[in-house]
């Protein structure tokens, strides 16, 4: 297959150094330079901006994310055809697999990531997404709210006691979720619906990051911002009200919300625990979040990363 490349990539855990090596090979494969690359983000994926080419390169952590990369490409095409403001693909045959790492290429959006002033735009875009007719050329996967969570826990460099606590909590939440009676109709969902998964360009907000798109309950998308408000303290009451008014619904009024809140807390914590070796700041933030879940209260405000 032309989209599978074996290259000289270092062994070891996924890191900014390893991702840079993958980037070099991937860029050469499609014929663009990467010497001007700038690391934008290291999380579930590594994102690099190549200014001269006007491209953003997205590198996933392992080969088992290949299906996600294929889905992201399909979702972008569907959203463009549906008129939903969202990130668009760079015009190459993709995704490609570089030594086991799925890679996709995106048009650079000349703007900024969403911030606290854009919470209303997030609500409006989620409403538009949830009201958009489902794709007809491919099928979105069923919603799996804990996808990758257990693997993050098992592979992260954190104490075994933390791993046992988190895995036990995941098991408890799976049982609680199975007993929920959702109020809203299933629809296409973003799956990682926070304000930093917006880009704002020329005053217009666009959705980005399609890795967790699925068909399922829209309450999960709404509960992300609600958890950031109630658990992490990242929103004021007025800002959260703006989000609810933009969407037309407040998920915290539903009696099942607390289960969704606890689930998002564990997802947010396991996301950051993947990078505890990247910096002292990340390690300290992980310690704050795990303590919050152990005690049930946030003695130190959570910091966004």
Automatic annotation (TrEMBL):
Gene3D superfamilies, sorted: 3.90.1200.10
Pfam families: APH
InterPro entries tied to this protein: AGP_Transferase (IPR051678), Aminoglycoside_PTrfase (IPR002575), Kinase-like_dom_sf (IPR011009)
Domain of life: Bacteria
Limits of the Aminoglycoside phosphotransferase domain: 53-251
Name by which UniProt lists this protein: Phosphotransferase family protein
Organism: Lentzea rhizosphaerae
């Amino acid at each position: 297959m032309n989209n599978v490349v074996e290259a000289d990539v270092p062994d070891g855990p996924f890191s900014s150094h390893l991702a840079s090596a993958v980037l070099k090979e991937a860029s050469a494969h499609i014929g663009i330079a990467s010497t001007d690359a700038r690391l934008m983000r290291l999380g579930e994926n590594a994102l690099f901006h190549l200014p001269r080419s006007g491209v953003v390169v997205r590198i996933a952590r392992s080969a088992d994310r290949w299906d996600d990369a294929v889905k992201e490409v399909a979702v972008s095409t569907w959203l463009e055809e549906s008129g939903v403001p969202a990130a668009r693909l760079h015009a190459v045959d993709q995704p490609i697999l570089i030594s086991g790492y799925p890679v996709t290429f995106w048009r650079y959006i000349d703007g900024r990531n969403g911030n606290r002033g854009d919470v209303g735009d997030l609500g409006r875009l989620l409403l538009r997404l949830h009201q958009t007719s489902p794709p007809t050329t491919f099928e979105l996967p069923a919603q799996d709210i804990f996808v990758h969570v257990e693997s993050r826990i098992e592979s992260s460099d954190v104490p075994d006691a933390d791993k046992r606590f988190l895995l036990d909590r995941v098991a408890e939440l799976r049982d609680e979720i199975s007993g929920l009676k959702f109020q809203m109709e299933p629809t296409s969902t973003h799956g990682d619906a926070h304000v930093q998964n917006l880009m704002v360009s020329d005053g217009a907000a666009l959705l980005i990051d399609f890795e967790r798109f699925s068909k399922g309950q829209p309450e999960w998308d709404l509960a992300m911002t609600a958890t950031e408000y109630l658990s992490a303290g990242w929103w004021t009451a007025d800002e959260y009200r703006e989000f609810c008014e933009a969407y037309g619904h407040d998920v915290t009024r539903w009696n099942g919300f607390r289960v969704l809140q606890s689930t998002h807390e564990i997802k947010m914590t396991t996301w950051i625990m993947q990078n505890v070796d990247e910096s002292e700041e990340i390690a300290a933030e992980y310690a704050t979040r795990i303590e919050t879940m152990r005690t049930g209260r946030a003695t130190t405000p959570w910091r966004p990363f």
